[in-house]
Design brief:
Length: 73
């Protein structure tokens, strides 16, 4: 599917996921679980690598509520 849609995939570290959780909480007041924060970490990596441009529109559904996390931040 990635080839057909000209898509891209990134691997993110646990450290990057936790950083994204903190950023989402502090900057936007969103308390999400690590699974949801992983998408945000991926977006950050894709913008750093210039795969997604600064002016591109992106939608990330952050559906995982942080209270489901075993060890909340």
């Amino acid at each position: 599917v990635l080839d057909i849609s000209n898509g891209h995939c990134e691997v993110v570290s646990e450290k990057n996921i936790l950083q994204s959780q903190l950023i989402l909480g502090k900057a936007y007041g969103l308390y999400v679980e690590p699974t949801a924060a992983a998408a945000m970490a991926g977006l950050h990596k894709l913008t750093q690598n210039k795969i997604i441009g600064k002016n591109d529109s992106v939608l990330i559904p952050l559906t995982g509520f942080g209270l489901k996390d075993k060890s909340p931040i």
